[in-house]
Amino acid sequence: MKSYKFKVNENGYTVNIKSHEDNIINLEVNGTPYEVVMKANVKTTKTPTLVRSASKQPAVPLKVNPKSAKTRIVAPIPGVILSLNVKVGDVIKENDLLLVLEAMKMENNIVAEKSGTVTAVKVEVGQQVLQDALMIELE
C-alpha cells in the first residue's frame, strides 16, 4: 500500500504498510513482517464535497440584435457535428433545426434564433468544433 522511510538514532528504517483492516495493520520494517493492533479506531477521511453557491444573478438568455444584418451561429460548447440540415441559400424560419452537435455523448440541436437566409456554412459533418467557433451565418 504505502511506503515510508524513517531515521531513528541515525538508523534508517523502511516501513511498508501491507494491509489495514479495522484496528489491525500488517506492515514490514526493513523486510521483517509485523502485525500491529491499534488501541483506538483509525478515522478514515472522506472525499471532500464541493458545494457551489447559487448565482446571485439569474441566467440571461442570449439575444440576437434584431437590427443587425447578419446573424452568426456559434458553437455553445466544443463537440462534433453529427448532421447538417441546411445549405447556403436555404430560407429558414425561427426555431428551424440547423444542425446537431454532439458534445459529451449528448446530441444538442442547434436551432435558428431568427428567420433569414443561410449565407455561409463554415462546418461539415464529422468536423470537431471548439466553443464559440463560427458554424453558420444568416442574413
UniProtKB/TrEMBL annotation:
This is Biotin-dependent enzyme. PANTHER family: OXALOACETATE DECARBOXYLASE ALPHA CHAIN (PTHR45266). Keywords: Biotin. InterPro entries: Biotin_BS, Biotin_Carboxyl_Carrier/Decarb, Biotin_lipoyl, Single_hybrid_motif. Residues 63-139 form the Lipoyl-binding domain. It comes from the Bacteria.
